Amino acid sequence: MTRYAATLGAATFAVTTGMVQAADLGAVDKPIRLAVNEWTGQHVTTHIAGEMLKAAGYKVEYVSAGMMNQFQAIADGDIHATLEIWSSNVSDDYAKKIGEGTVVELGDLELAAREGIAYPAHVGELCPGLPAWEALKDCAPLFASAETLPAGRLVDYPADWGTPGADRMTGLDLPFKAVPAGSEAALIVELRAATERKKPLLVTFWQPHWAMSAYDVKFVDLPAGEEACFSDPAWGPNPNAINDCDFAASRIFKAGWSGLAETWPAASEILSNYTLAVEDQQPMMGAVDVDGGKVEEVVAAWMAENEATWRPVVDAAIK
User: Fold this and answer.
1) pLDDT per residue over 114-124, tens digit each?
2) Which of 102, 179, 253, 261 is the right S-S partner for 75, CB 3.0 to 4.6 Å?
3) 60: Cβ–Cβ under 8 A, 6 or more apart, which residues?
4) pLDDT: is 14 or 47 the higher one?
């Protein structure tokens, strides 16, 4: 498959307004070590940042590090930055190191992470009231299967991931039965089959994920996920239940060694001002996970084709 490589877009980068003086490069002979965690999207994020640093004149090394246990190495200065931390999956050690001042935040990546109840775009034609969640009340029979009749079928996360989809169906009093998928791969099979056959499908899903782009997946609009929704039944459209709302939002951000700015001032500015749009990361994930491309090659192709989108961030820091 090659469609992902053909759809790589221009990632969105932010340059702090009012920046009028370039920073010093600092210790250019000392390599900046970037953490590489366990998932493809983070590899893409990190390699784009690394290539920007190289363009500024720095040496860069990529270091394999577990997401949950990388912060001691950052605090010790053995790793200098990590570029994609999810607030929904961060260890207590991170907060401890921030409190000590040995790890510092480098700002939001602005990658629009989201979990929710979702459907392939063609389902909007079968249930015209979508993406409004109320439309599912009348459309539920379209989604029914032999195992769920008369209720509609929701393909939920695998059982060991919890029951967030089932919780929403109960909370919003929707006539659906949640059926756990066997695995992430099984969720993808459902999306592929529904898209190819133009059949109704409702799933619990998340972004960033390459399948969001591959199958043009849309989210159902649910009531905003506020803290009270998860503890106070009186909150929300169903006065008798909690979870009658969307998933809690995740923040995705960057962090680094406390000595980063002093050792490499311009690099610190570049990493702090670097952001990435989910619409751009997802196709690159697909180019790797589906098309079989190497992260380095996919990122290099993007950098070569989209210099006008990343070069201003580098130039603002060094010129």
Assistant:
1) 999 999 999 99
2) 102
3) 31, 32, 33, 34, 50, 53, 54
4) 47
CA distances from 25 to 142, 259, 314, 318 (A): 60, 14, 11, 7
The pLDDT value given to residue 21? 58
Q: Does the pTM exceed 0.85?
A: no
Residues in a beta bridge with 62 = 34
The structure tokens listed for 241 are 């239940």
- Mean pLDDT value across residues 245-264: 95
Q: Are 225 and 69 in contact (CB under 8 A)?
A: no
Mean pLDDT for all residues in the chain = 91
* pLDDT of 73 above 80: yes
Sign (positive/negative) of CA torsion 62, 64, 66, 71? negative
Q: Exposure of 21 by Cβ count < 10 A (0-12 exposed, 13-18 middle, 19+ buried)?
A: exposed
CB proximity list for 234: less than 8 A, separation 6 or greater? none
* Band of pLDDT at residue 207, cut at 50, 70 and 90: very high
Report how far residue 112's alpha carbon sits from residue 238's, in angstroms, rounded to the nearest whole number.
28
Sequence-distant (6+) residues with CB within 8 A of 2 are 291
pLDDT, residue 14, reads 41
Distance CA 216, CA 118 (A): 10
pLDDT digits (tens, 9 = 90+) for 293-304: 999 999 999 999
Q: Which residues pair with 105 in a beta bridge?
A: 255
Element (H, E) at 132: none
Tokens standing for residue 53: 């640093």
User: Which residues lie closer than 8 Å to 165 by C-beta, 6 or more apart?
Assistant: 117, 154, 155, 156, 157, 178, 203, 204
Given a contact cutoff of 8 angstroms between Cβ atoms, the answer to whether 1 and 211 are in contact is no
